[in-house]
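To the team - adenosine-5'-triphosphate complex, inputs and output below.
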Amino acid sequence: MALLEVRDLTMKFGSLLANSDVSFDVEKGTIVGLIGPNGAGKTTLFNCVAGLYTPTAGKVFFKGEDVTDLPAYKMARRGVARTFQVVRPLKEMTVFENILVGAYMRTGDSAKAKEIAERCLELCFLGEHRCRLAGGLTIGNKKRLEVARALATEPELLLLDEAVAGLTSTEVREMVEVIVRLREEGITILMVEHIMEAIMPIADKIVVLASGKKIAEGAPADIVKDPVVITAYFGEKFSKRINEHKADAPAENSDVHAEREQGTAHKEGI
Ligand SMILES: Nc1ncnc2c1ncn2[C@@H]1O[C@H](COP(=O)(O)OP(=O)(O)OP(=O)(O)O)[C@@H](O)[C@H]1O
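Output:
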């Protein structure tokens, strides 16, 4: 049994079909990337899984239990945490205090909460910033703080919504290192990502959405060669480049920056 099972999920906003009959599994201990063009329905799917939206049709199972109708706070208690595309730290609080807020969602015991927060601080490479006010951090540190806060709720499944968007190539590498560490800690990760150099080297599986539908699912090496995905999302040039890319880590700079500036890696952009 997979940790997360999405079955025939459909989400409508009025007459707009944001997700249409989407099904896939996320196995425990894996990193799954959710990719696709702007407006493909990735964030909507995240919101359905996290309990922010109730899908119009279809089911979501977490650890074999039907959680389709559970609100976000109940999903958080069951072990599903998420980060948002636009980070919103508690600016007037320190980095450590921000993480503590997350830890207190899991426990009322302050010694235990501090212990959890210390661990998350270290896992997200934020130790040297612990006493700084969150509002004054660089975007790279703010994004890792967002992950640390979610992590402090001790999730089994972490949903990352564009965790590396807007980051420099060095910051992308730091975030990728954090994500790989989390998988080593046994945390399962489902991440929406446009920056292929970040997701392709670390994902165990990629799910591709376009116009609300799943158009492909498979190993990154197969996805980059899939003609349907190339047409709908990558474009030939991008696909050729990523196939040639020998990275075991994100690209040094220019490629990642190019995508960051364009905001996407879709077909006309590369
Ligand atoms: N709350 C909402 N009300 C109405 N329409 C919405 C709502 N949220 C999303 N949509 C629409 O649903 C479709 C899918 O949007 P969604 O944000 O899920 O796509 P996405 O793949 O995450 O895009 P991006 O990569 O740009 O973040 C879009 O047409 C969007 O305008």
